[in-house]
Give the backbone structure.
Amino acid sequence: RQTTEAPVILEGLYESVYNARWHHVVELPDDEKTKTGMEVKEGKPKHSWTYKKVGLTLEKDDGAEQFGAAPPRLMVLTSDKGWPYTLNAQQGPMKDFFINCEVERVWQIVSSDLTKWFDNFDLSLNPSPTRRLLIGTPGIGKSMAAGSYLLYHIKKLQVIVHCFGETAYVFDKTAQTVTQYEDNITSKIVVRSFWQRGMNGYIIYDVARKGTPPDTNFAPASGWGMIVVSSPKVSNYDEWEKQLTAKRIIMNCPDEMDVKAMCAWMKQGVKTDEQAEYWEMVKTHMDEVGPIPRYIFDDEEYIDRMAAVNDALVAIKPIDGKYLTEGGTKLWYSENPSQKLVKIVRAKTEKGAEVFLNAPICADIGLKTVERLRKVMSTKDFLLLILGSLTVLVSRTLERFGLHAFLFREFISALVKELKELKPREGRGSQESALKENQQGHPTRTIGLKGLQGGVERKPLEYRVLYIPAVDNFPLVDGVFFVDSPRKTLVGLQMTTASAHHTITSTVKQFKERLAAYFEGWGELSREMSWEMIYVQHKDNKPMKKWQNCDVVNSNNKTETEKEIVAFWNGKLHQYQFSLTPGFAWKMREMTIQ
């Protein structure tokens, strides 16, 4: 017979958690002081992120930040005795956790739930705060960061229970103690005992660590709020979510600047050169395995993750294509190796509720995934898959997958009939796209353009190759290829869900510098080369009809370089627009099926 472990009072943890110390990391206008562009400061920042109502949820209000003081890039909370999530970690309790705008957003939503409940005088209609389900990509900090932040912030309730499978830490605000309980049944009995004494509380139930779904009756029916924290794996939460009609919070991955700020915190106090070197290493890891903190800060973790990613790529089957490109939850119904190739991104239903979609976890893995799908799928099925992804366009990373349509003659033949030239204001004469005059010049294979960290080896430029960035935040284009007749032409591709896509001179300058770094003899090659830009628009967007400008940030202080770039853009570039309408997609499918 199984014995139940006696409860343990954890001396000093209560005071350590609720007296946690604040720090924050701010972005600097340049890299000169720290070589990373980040600086650590003591205390809680005076200004944090602002959020606004969007549909049924909240989103960060970037507009508010333009008119007020800049928020921090990152906040840090430190508890000397650690936090419940890592108390039993092999390396010992972790004292710090990071708060970015995504973690703060979780708290703002839960805080709004609690405020509505506290203000509710008719408890028969709303006996408990809204039940919540927090879902995010494994390894991004849902448990350590979001869970610990909720524990720290929920002040007005008398009891907070932080559960990890069968282990529960009970924070009793009245006694100011933390008690550790083992065994799910014991934890439920303890919660019921507080409820029977008329005490209100909140349960943070973490499934991700031990994979133990919560019982549907774990929380009392009244007076207690509850949030379940989980990976997207459906069996972790589906029954609880349905029975309790829980509302979802989808947590996105940290972005590049968030990770850079984390590096600044971890390497504070060391020489600036070492800080910059560490960031370069982490950035390389992030470009290859995605922005997942669990795998990018340590070399061994990164190497193990790369091996798992490579195994997942080899294991891809034709049926995985739809899951990997069109999102949805089906990928997460069972243990599928392809889960290591994707991250989840937040989207909203027409009524404004939060849902998640799958997207490549980073540009490099996205390219490798596509190449693997090309090998395991028939040509017809692969093209149909691309057409399906083009009509979805759920994320910037996924948009690049749609570029592979340019590898197919059938797509090019149909596209050139629909291309519309955008006439520049100067009234230059019109010109047919080089692709229309030479349809055989379309690319037939792809090559990924790596990041410039640590330098790249220049290689000869190849015609009929679709070059796709294998890093995020690539300047100006989503892809580029070169046509050698009727004239040597650079064709830039921009997949856009916007009704306009203007650019600035610094972006064009960065793009030219990238090309010079990638290709041998670019300076000479580019002198006589024509430039074209094709804007591929989504069916739901207003079609572009006007010239897309290249502007200067400060028009009152133009440099000679900026003037040259604007003159080049307006005098040498030709722009074309194409709308991927349902009719076009249907026509392509008909052609492909025949």
Q: What stands out?
A: The mean pLDDT is 89. The chain has two domains: 1-377, 401-593. The first helix runs from residue 13 to 18.
